[in-house]
Amino acid sequence: MFDSPLSASAYDVLAVKPDASDDDLRRAYRLRLRQTHPDTGGDAAVFVQVQRAWELVGTPDARAAYDRGHGFGDAASFAPDAPQWRPRSRPADTRPRARSFGQPGGWRRERYLTLIREWAGRGVDLPDPYDPALVRSAPHDIRRLLADALAEEATARLVGDLGMGYTVWHDVAADPRDPEVKLDHIVLGPSGLYALLSEDFGAPVRTKRGELIGDAVEGSPIARLVLTARGLGRSAKVKFSGAVVVLPDDDVATAIEELGRVKGLPVAVVGRSALATVLRRGVTGAREIGGNELFDVRTRLQQVMRFA
């Protein structure tokens, strides 16, 4: 909520302009509380959003922090020519991390920057292509690119904390002819080999018959994920243990929803905060990988690995 390029901003929820005075903002908040309160016929979900919006912009310090950009421009720290991606450094954290390769969200960030500049127009200076006002005024397809890039980066930070027993590949190209055919992440560890899809639809989603559904869902993302994983598995001569769709916590009804087998592969849809739990314990029906087999699978993947 509020931290996605696809979601309504705190100002939208309060029905004021971003440059509204503090007094106007306070009056708008009180009005929205009366309009949305369940006891007066309002929507309880919107009532909660109004309160959350006030928490984000209700004080000068909070508002200043919110206006700086909601983290839209906070790319993970990495060296573009380095073999291993590393998240933003945390000096106090000395725990062993998973071995990580590739640039999470990199393809979509690059595509976003290209399209946002084309949309703004030739000769227009964009000192900050991640400015919240600019992002939220852009067409949906452009905002969606940035939302998914941020989602991939958030997942990368989580899987990096799994520990040295895991190897992770990000932004893996599955079809050299089409850069959009890719796996956001591949995670290999004792619980198995998993293909991950990191998404942010900007709205709650549900599942039906092994697929995601919702007003913002286009196509068949789970079926596409499974087919892409199976194709890469054939190229590397390995078998994926399962597939996991990672969504913002606010957009899923339950933290972990296991869908059973979809086209022969166990699939789970999880909220972001539950991802580490799922990857450590595995998905029901998924085959674990241990001992020498883990090293063999890693070697086979490295031999065919290409990045988007």
What does this structure look like?
By secondary structure, the chain is of the alpha/beta class. It folds into 2 domains: 10-67, Helix Hairpins; 99-304, no CATH class. It has helices at residues 10-14, 22-36, 44-57, 60-67, 106-120, 132-137, 140-160, 221-236, 275-281, 292-304, and strands spanning 99-101, 167-173, 182-189, 192-198, 206-208, 211-213, 242-247, 256-262, 265-271. It has a 7-stranded mixed beta sheet, with helices on both faces. A two-stranded antiparallel ribbon has the order 5-6. Strand 5 and strand 6 form a beta hairpin. Mean pLDDT is 89; it is low at 75-85. Residues 77-103 are annotated as: Disordered. It comes from Microbacterium marinum.
Number of helices: 10
Radius of gyration: 21 Å
Strand content: 15-25%
Helicity level, as a percent range? Answer: 25-40%
Q: State the major sheet.
A: 7 strands, mixed
Instruction: Write down how many β-strands occur, each being a DSSP E stretch of 2 or more residues.
Output: 9
Q: End-to-end span in angstroms?
A: 29 Å
Q: Going across the biggest sheet, name each strand in turn.
A: 1-2-3-4-7-9-8
Low-confidence stretches: 75-85
- The helix/strand class is alpha/beta
What is the count of structural domains? 2
Which series of helices and strands comes N to C? HHHHEHHHEEEEEHEEEHH
Question: What is the molecular shape?
Answer: globular
Name the average pLDDT.
89
